[in-house]
Amino acid sequence: MADVGSAGVQGVAARGAGTDLEVDHTHGETRPWEIRIVKHPPRSESSHFRAAKKVAKKILEELSADGADAPYGPGPWEMHHGGSLWVMTESGWRMYRARVGIEWSMQFCADPAKVERLRQEAAELVAAFPLTLPALDDLGYQRADDLLNTPITDADSVEAWTDGLFNACVPMSNPHHSGVLPKAAGEHHYPWPTKSADFFKFDDFQLWVTLPDDTHVGVAPVGRRGSGDGRVRIVHARHGTPAGDALAQAQLRREMAVVPPDSPIALAAFEQQIPPGADTAATPPAG
């Protein structure tokens, strides 16, 4: 995990997109709050989830046997309730993400009518891949047809959908699933528009940069690769930190929170792309 020096937070707090942002006040809460961390029995797995995990592992075994990559990298995997629309194509198994996934704990606020729309959308997708249901049946998963064709009208059918194959089986490693920085940015804790870049960014770009206060910012280049532009835009920062305050102020002004190429944040983000010891992330444009 890249780290930045003491100038890192100042660089974030003082600059937006072409406009200096002065952070010259403090902010505190006048209404304190608390939560209770209580012991609870282990969460029991429904029969729906046990069956879904079993067939998902068989699908992943088939992918491995075919030399194909799992959707979000190698295992060991945990099954994330992230909207897992598995289909069998002419070239093998593929997984698409649903419009939204339903986390297990969130099913208790789920409106059946809204979950019903997710079921309809999943059924339309699977219908476009007619090899899917026979392939699942061959793997011993006889629940797929009922899941896709039974209207969702109550808490029981919401539970069946939530823990079924078409919602509950996005295979992710523990770090990508529920990890926290500095080790990894798990999907449960970091916004997906930023976190998703972990799966498509250049390997030599540092997406998450550690600040002197041990919080982290997610960053993105301002220009395309080879442009020579060494600035980075902060796209995620923890609320209540100097970086988070600067990002919020920039957003209120409809500006980007951009740090210059000589900022410790930019240097950390581009560390693997610039010469060792360079004092700026700006480089000559590619010819």
Q: Could you characterize what this model shows?
A:
There is one protein chain. This protein has 287 residues and is α+β, with helices and mostly antiparallel strands. It is built from eleven helices and nine strands. The protein folds into two domains: 2-18 and 175-269, no CATH class; 78-172, no CATH class. A hairpin with a 2-residue loop joins strand 3 (84-89) and strand 4.
Largest sheet: 5 strands, mixed
Kindly report how far apart the N and C termini lie.
31 Å
Low-confidence stretches: 9-27
Number of strands: 9
Give the topology string: H per helix, E per strand. EHHEEEHHHHHEHHEEEHEH
**Approximate strand percentage:** 5-15%
Shape: globular
Gyration radius over CA: 23 Å
Q: Provide the number of structural domains.
A: 2
Task: State the helicity in percent bands.
Answer: 25-40%
Quote the average pLDDT: 90
- Structural class by sheet pairing and helices: alpha+beta
- In the sheet with the most strands, the strands line up as 1-6-7-8-9
Number of continuous helical runs: 11
